[in-house]
Amino acid sequence: MAERVMPEIDRERCTVCGDCIETCPEHALTLHTKLGVVIDEESCAYCGNCEDICPLGAIQLPYSIRLADGQNHETARQGTRDDHTTDRAYR
Asked: What's the pTM?
């Protein structure tokens, strides 16, 4: 079973503006007084709204693409949308 990939918050970039919290349709983001913005992994639908709205790029949605090479061997490439190699079709 594949490991569930979750959005990552760069705590140094995040200013806790709250834009991501307001835009989340699943209410998976909340404000914690000591931790800042936190993600409820059970609620997150990985829609990308939080990443799109963040004015400082503090939220990244990593992705993993697995390719079969005909030998039933898997190769994985991981990255973020900042790599400019993905779009919503891979989410």
From this structure: 0.66
